[in-house]
Amino acid sequence: MTYSNVTDKLINLERFRIVNRSFPKTEEILDLKRQDRKVFGWLCTYVPEEIIHAAGILPVRITGYTQETELDDGSAYLYINNCSFSRSCLQMGLKGEYDYLDGLVAGSTCDGSRRLFDLWQHYLEVPFHHMLTVPRKYTERAHKLYYEQVVMLKEHLEQHLDTEITDEALLKSISVYNESRELLKKLYQLRMVDKPPISGAETMEVLNASQRMPKEQFNQYLRELLDELAVSGNEYRGRSRLMVTGSVMNNPEFIRSIEELGGLVVTDELCTSTRYWSDPVDVDNHSPLEAISRRYLNNFPCARMVPSERRFDRILQMAHDYKVDGVISQIIRYCVPYAHDIPLLTDRLEKAGIPILALDVEYGTSGSGQISTRVQAFLEMLETRKK
Amino acid sequence: MIFTGIDIGSRAAKAIIIDDDAIIGSTIGDTGPESVKTAHMTIEAAMKGPGISLDDISYIVATGYGRVLVPFAGENISEISCHARGINWYYPSVRTILDMGGQDCKAIRSDAEGHVTNFVMNDKCAGGTGRFLEMIADVLETPLSEIGELALQTANEIPFNTICAVFAKSEALAHLRHGIARSDILAGLNDAIAVRCLTLLKKVSIEKDFTITGGIAKNKGMVAKISEKVGLEPVLAEDPQLIGALGAAIYARERYLGKESEDTGKVQYGYNDATGDYYITIDSERCDSCGECVSACPEAIFEIVTEDGHRPKAVVAESARKRLSILCPGYDSCSSSFKVNCRSACSKDAISLSW
Amino acid sequence: MNSSLRCWKTVRTMKTLGIDIGSLNVKAIVLGDEGVIGTGIGPPGDDIEAGARSVLELATRQAGLNSDSLPSVATGVGAKLVSITPQQKSITTCLARGARYMFPTVRLVIDMGAESTTVIKVNERGRLADWANHDKCASGTGLFLEQMAKLMNLPLEQMAKLSLQAKGRADISNTCAVFAESEVISHVHRDPPTPMEDIAAGIYYSVVSRIISLCKRVGIEKDIVITGGMALNEGLVNIMEQELGCEVLKPEAPQTIAALGAAIIARENAEKGIKT
Amino acid sequence: MTTAEHKSDVDTLVRMYRMLARMNRSRPEARGSQTLYFNLLAEYYTRVSNAHRDGKLLAAHTVFFPTEILYAMDIVPMHTEMTTWLHALFLREQAELLAKGAELGLAPEICSPHRGVAGIFAMDAIPHPDVILWSNLICDNTAKAGELMMELSNSPGFFLDNPFQDSPGEMDYLVGELEEMVHFLEEKSGRKMDWNKLSEMIEHTDREIELYREISELRKAVPSPMSIVGYLELLSADYMFPGQPEALQYLTLLRDELKETIQEGKGAVSQERFRLMTLFVPPMYMISSLGNLFEEKGAVSVVEPMFTRWSEGKLDPDRPLESVAKKSFLIPERRSMYGPLSQQALQDITDSAEQYKIDGAIYWAFMGCRHTCATIKVMKDLLNEIDIPMLTIDCDIVDPTITSEEEVRDKLEQFFEMLEDR
Predict the structure, then answer these.
(1) Chains sharing 3 or more CB pairs under 8 A with chain D
(2) Residues D116 and D134 occupy one common structural domain
(3) Closest partner residue to D161 among A137, A331, A342, by Cβ?
(4) Domain spans, chain A
(5) Cβ–Cβ gap A383/B65 under 8 Å
(6) What's the pLDDT score for residue B2?
(7) Model confidence at C10: pLDDT above 60
(8) With contact defined as beta carbons under 8 Å apart, do B6 and B248 qualify?
């Protein structure tokens, strides 16, 4: 990565790094637990966080090890042919890393995550557990069903906590989350320029933290970070501008390994990143619950949704907006929804003249060994195309 | 002028030394556990032939698994690019390359200049790689160099169920126990591997001419099987295992001399590393050899030369070419700190910097 | 109570033969009233029949007998291929019996051969209750360790010692045994190179945790006995104990346990024969 | 390929099944129900192969699809997974199909039948379907298979979104989905849905479900009357012609045969020694050799909780569409594989273990089926609690390169030896 006078000491970035280093057992979370506040885990971007937040609970996203480690428990319980993400998460659970959770909420999004939920429940009983049925379509009927499911989650929570989740509370949570989405959008806009002030790996740190700490606090830090960046004069540039797509991935090391080879990651289509912050909840002409359910079902789609064209279009749009030279698709073995899309996505991107590098990885990989060879070759290929 | 490409593969380390267009030295040895040591041993071995020393070599490019740890290399380039470029030196007509190396197997598509246009690599499985054949070779207690010939002697090859290296091995053992001929076992394995290679190739779509590079391309039995499956006779280099190193050597020359392309008189000086492109480009067509740049450059890296048969033109001085990274801070920085510099000084606007 | 013990009393001067025909080694055990009275180990060679014969000659000679008279049971991958005896039992059953004979308290047998790893659950009656072989694309085998040691130019023991000094631990891909090598190679070739001890630790961890994963499939229960050629590798056993968090029992001739089990079964059969 | 050529691929299936049926007639010991089953498949593929000639719409659909609706609309269904499996089985083209799938860029981790389906479409080896119908019941693979099939065959398609849990709202949703699909099919086929015909089929289906329950009951007998081969026939009967008179005929005949066998005090195997629970399905290509091994060892599969234990409930011919929806909540696969891992599902494992007096269980761990394999540990724990050992065999139901027959035989022999030992 070439840069001119990058001040690596961005205080707020460091704050986020600290959170990520100590997660799941971060100071903030342990403090909350001491004040016996509740902390819930959630499994997939189709889980409406606002509802949990509105109930006065801290929602944190369940993620696995940020290294490609042997999954002895994971493989013994989830068997060897479930994706290393769910195995990695379950193993952390079984090893007690998430022992503080008061609840677990998941959606019926993919076979891997729903079985992760099943086994988590079976072997690590959590006081509260809820599964939302998430339709795979965008039809009005689907919206109606998903809305019902969101209402059921709210009612289940109310009954479990024996309190009411008021519309006021919901509206408040929505505004907190929308602000967060707005700020993250600003952060991403900084990456559209030729010499972004922030690298892909750094952005990943920010997004990881956003799903692991109280949102209000996160928003404040991010606001300050944006101010810092504005005056930092940081400039990143690389041999090519890249987009990362595919399975769930939240390891900054992986992005760093790409950027150290000179490919600048300027955007992504990951459920831990873009698909997490994109699209605010629109409360103008809907009830809070309705607005929430619409946002979550209509959000930047996962490969599970039908038709996939909707996802492909947004990928192509992003590739255009961020002036992307190439796409790196990283797919975890046994991540069926994404693996199935490779033939179709490759075709769409080729038509748009954007080369794609399809990597098969294990969750948590730091992109070493053969992967880095492929990435370097891909970058060299992109260069010769440019000339 | 002498250039070297060094290819530290996962199993074997190779080096090639070229003088202009002629190969004057080459070597193939084992890759040891210490990368740097391996690199030194390899280059020493290669330099023995022509009897030269490191100082005689103008520029070195490294490739292969160990490419990042070659202390004396100017830069490193992935083996995929190098194989494409290397075979292009022998056969510019090659469009499809199957590189069968020690740990992985790659299908590469390249254009007339030997640039990679598409490639795929075997996924997280060693089936069908050199290492895999090694394992099989010692299961069959046959030297690796002989299994190719042996496979060709098959009377009736036996189908193999798996090419998972771990399980193919036990399957091979089982067959041996049942007294099946080694040649038949090998033929069966080669068939399984060839099918797998075919799939890789089809992923990048096969176009003539077709070639096989890497160590396994020396395995007659395998080559026969693959050409049978692909339906194309591969054009083979005299030593396919050296193609990666050769490609690196050609890159070395190109990087050092600058890419002169006939159509436009543009000449590039500089280098590119993991962090990006650093090229000073001089358009000899436009250059009127006024010499402004020579005096303008704070580091005096330019000079006016007259090659016989050519009119005088500005070039980057030979002495400066290798040290460009130290000497030239790039246009942005240079223009900010100095009033005049090469680019602003050039009235014909013949000089441009990539950074 | 254990039937194999019962037959000691009822049967006088009974001698039986157990032979385990593995892919790399043939092992033979002659069992007498007082216990093991003859042991033989040797390679099967090209002609398994002959290889097996010569090994059991070794054992019987040591026991001061001639082989052909003895009641015997064969086991192991090659058992079907030799005409030494019609009696055959699967390797898992034999291991369970052998381990039980050595350590009556055994509940879990971890057999680490060069080619494969098997974990065997023994119930309180000393019978085979469950087992798990290492799964597809596994690297939890002894051979893998040896290859890695060769790759790093280290003797196996040295590599084990190194790994115990490691501060960090290198990621070794958890997919394919052979492919894992290239991970190791790229660790070596990384800039800066990963410290040798970290790589060693990574290698051992990848092997051990895979074996432990197998144990978890059948359920970990003490006492744990470790058998097979790899049980001789102290470094590996130490790390196993570390990861398992408990001591494991080691028979002095771990690679002959299956043959011993076979001999015991031969004895039982013979005894049954006598009864009827 | 020309039309003539790839018609022939399906025609081969027809010829094969006719031949098998003929062979059965000449074998006195052969089961009449099996002969009928072979004929039914021959007819099924005759319909597929003639669909266009007869001016009928040919609909390719994924597994567990409510084909009653297609039959009621006089649309010819083509079961993509089954067709691919049988194709692979009889034409020995597993390798080609899977290689073709790989060329498309499908990762080896994707369920092989679905890689095969993509392959068979890319090879254009089956009659060209006029519509593609797919659903997320049973897994992500079926949910994702459709769009690729549409692209490869460039045919229009409809995705039937089958909800995950069983709240009333979800039932309504599914009914709505079915309505929409009927409209889609009416538009594409130019035929109106014949509601009476559908009601009739629901009636049949309901009786079939009853027969399935009866057959399961009969298999509790000692010795158990049905062989492992019969189990797979049983499944395809509902996969391929549910609600059809012939299915009814087949199941009735099978039931009577089983009754008879029981009365004669005979069993599926000449000497029953091991009563087994089968979890998931054994590899298709091994089924006959498996039959032999079971006969040799005296083993018989008496219950398959994942595939043959239907949930409680009746269908209502007066509310056909609701009944079609309801059926997808009654099928055993829903409880055991698709839906949440419910206590009910787990209870059913131990219940059937006891009711059927099983000695051991065999879990066919099909590497392509992730959400099924995720339950291996849970079920093993459950069964071990009641002291029943469970053998897990890694395998692939269509791709013989994953597990060799030798390996499987080896593991089974060890397992039987172990059961013997206890």
Answers:
(1) A, B, C
(2) yes
(3) A137
(4) 2-168
(5) no
(6) 93
(7) no
(8) yes
**Beta strand segments in chain B, E:** 2-8, 12-19, 22-30, 57-63, 75-76, 96-100, 105-110, 116-121, 210-213, 266-273, 276-283, 302-305, 313-316, 351-353
Pairing between β-strand D274-279 and β-strand D299-303 as defined by DSSP bridges: parallel
Mean of pLDDT over chain B: 84
Instruction: Please check whether residues D260 and D173 belong to one and the same domain.
Output: no
What's the mean pLDDT in D148-170?
Answer: 95
Would you say residue C23 has pLDDT above 80?
no
* pLDDT tens, residue by residue, C24-48: 789 999 998 888 999 999 988 778 8
Fold for domain A2-168? Rossmann fold (3.40.50)
Cβ contact C90–D380 (<8 Å): no
Does D397 score more than 90 pLDDT?
no
Q: Say whether both D140 and D247 belong to one domain.
A: no
The answer to whether B2-86+245-255 and B259-353 have equal CATH topology is: no
Q: What is the CATH number of the domain that holds D163?
A: 3.40.50.11890
pLDDT of residue B123: 66
- A168 pLDDT exceeds 70? yes
User: In 3-state terms, what secondary structure has residue B211?
Assistant: strand
| Chain C partners (3+ C-beta pairs within 8 A) | A, B, D
Does D228 lie in the same domain as D325?
yes
Picking from D162, D132, D128, the residue whose alpha carbon sits closest to that of residue D147 is D132
Nearest 5°: CA angle at A376, between A5 and A301?
85
Asked whether residue B164 carries a pLDDT value surpassing 70, the answer given is no
Which tens digit of pLDDT belongs to each residue from C156-180? 888 888 888 888 888 776 556 666 7
| Strands A326-332 and A240-246, sheet pairing | parallel
Domain B259-353 has CATH 3.40.1000: no
- CB hemisphere CA count around C203 (13 angstroms): 40
Neighbours of chain A (3+ CB pairs under 8 A): B, C, D
Task: Report the pLDDT value the prediction gives residue B278, as an integer from 0 to 100.
Answer: 75
* Weakest mean pLDDT among A18-22, A147-151, A372-376: A372-376
- ipTM (interface pTM): 0.83
Q: Report pLDDT digits (tens) over B228-246.
A: 999 999 999 999 999 999 9
As assigned by CATH, the class of the C1-103+252-276 domain is alpha beta
From chain A, pick out residues whose CB is under 8 angstroms from the CB of D163: 133, 135, 145
Q: Do C213 and A368 touch (CB under 8 A)?
A: no
In terms of CATH architecture, what is C104-250? Answer: 2-Layer Sandwich (3.30)
Reported as a single tens digit per residue, the pLDDT across D11-34 is 989 999 999 999 999 998 889 999
Q: Give per-residue burial for B22-44: e unless 16+ CB within 10 Å, then b.
A: ebbbbbbeebbbbbbebbebbbe
Give the CATH fold of the B92-236 domain: Nucleotidyltransferase; domain 5 (3.30.420)
> Using the beta-carbon criterion (under 8 Å), do D377 and A307 form an inter-chain contact?
no
Task: Identify which of C68, C13, C1 has the alpha carbon closest to the alpha carbon of residue C271.
Answer: C13
D93 and D206 housed in the same domain: no
Q: What is the spatial distance between Cα D387 and Cα C124, in angstroms, rounded to a whole number?
A: 12
CB contact under 8 A, D394 and C135: yes
User: CB–CB of A380 and B80 under 8 A?
Assistant: yes
Q: Using alpha carbons, list the distances in angstroms from residue A227 to A213, A217, A233, D29.
A: 20, 16, 11, 85
Q: Where are the domains of chain B?
A: 2-86+245-255, 92-236, 259-353
pLDDT of res. D288: 86
Comparing CB atoms, the residue among C89, C136, C217 nearest residue D417 is: C89
How many domains does the structure of chain D reveal? 2
Evaluate if residue C8 carries a pLDDT over 60: no
Protein fold of B2-86+245-255? Nucleotidyltransferase; domain 5 (3.30.420)
Same domain, D243 and D95: no
